[in-house]
Amino acid sequence: MQSFMKQLLSGSSRHTGWLAAVVTVSIWSAFIVIARASARHELLPLDITWARIMGASFILLPWCWWSVQRQRSTGAVSGSFGGFSPLPWRVTVLTGLFGGFGYAVLAYSAFFFAPAAHGSVLLPGSLPLWTSLLAVFILGERLHGYRLLSLAMILGGDLLVGGSSLLHAFEGGTVWIGDVMFIVASMCWSAYSVISRRYQLQAVQATMAITCFAFFSFVPLYLVLCASGVLSTHLLSAPWSEILWHALFQGVGSVVVSGISFTLMIRAYGPVRSTMITALVPGLSALGAVLLLDEPLSWQVMLGLSLVTLGIVFGVRSSRSAKAKAAA
């Protein structure tokens, strides 16, 4: 059992890829519905971000510190941030800035302006587009064939959803603000996935690093701004059950569990194909928003959702074709 877990976390098990995909898709789909539902409750977006970071830090920071101290006891030079990150300082800042701090703040704030269906299209649905473009410039990958067609479909879906809200911006609407935040948050997560691939990061170490950076950057800054009156918070007035729920699901589930599973997918399939495996997330989360949150689906969102899903499917086909040619 211990040997199997070690293989699983290192990405060497042959079952790692599909298991990581199932876990990631399930948690990401639930994340969108739950994050949108949170806008109807007491906590503010940055309060949820705080709960997310604290929940993940409660588990990962002691685990990381113990692991780094064991390595240092053998004479190995490892870790940064006082031993609370297993990665060098520069890599910790890069992964934490995009995969931890930036993504969480933008994503949770966006759900307070735009509906869950918009998040389904623009958040996970846009990942293949931004990841492919970043992979071209950073990893030197090439785009051709079905890959270009898939990215064109995803871009068309994004324009249908985000473009329609931008057209109403001058009429006093605020949905476009959430759409822009969704797009930038998706860019942040794509940057994190490419950085993970670039440095060949281990799943657990990468998740520890982004949590460490978020804890030592966001938490003190947020507390100072709240104490000085610059930002408002509902942490003192919200029910403890709500705070604990977000710490468990958003922190332990979305960060620890899905963070590790997503990084395992990157190691198993590469950053571009990994994001394309999440083809089910936009449809499942949009359907969940309709059934559980009673949110309507406009024809622009339905068409955009279809284009994004088809684009991801074509991208998966492209990745498989390229892998087959490489094997030949």
Gist?
Helix content is 77%, strand content 0%. The chain is mainly alpha-helical and 328 residues long.
Helix content: over 70%
Please give the domain count. 1
- Radius of gyration equals 20 Å
Question: So how many helices?
Answer: 13
Share of β-strand residues: under 5%
Weakly predicted, low-confidence segments? 324-328
The biggest beta sheet is recorded as: none
Q: Could you state the order of secondary-structure elements as H and E?
A: HHHHHHHHHHHHH
> What is the CA–CA distance across the termini?
36 Å
Indicate the structural class. mainly alpha
Instruction: Please tell me the overall pLDDT.
Output: 82
Number of E strands: 0
Structure characterization notes:
This protein is mainly α and 328 residues long. The chain has one domain (15-327). The chain has 13 helices and no strands. α3 (45-73) packs across α9 (203-227) and α5 (116-122) packs parallel to α13 (299-327). The chain is globular. Residues 324-328 have low confidence and may be disordered.
Write the topology of this structure.
Layout: H1 2-10, H2 16-38, H3 45-73, H4 89-110, H5 116-122, H6 127-138, H7 146-167, H8 175-198, H9 203-227, H10 240-269, H11 271-277, H12 280-292, H13 299-327
Question: What labels describe this entry?
Answer:
disordered C terminus; mainly alpha
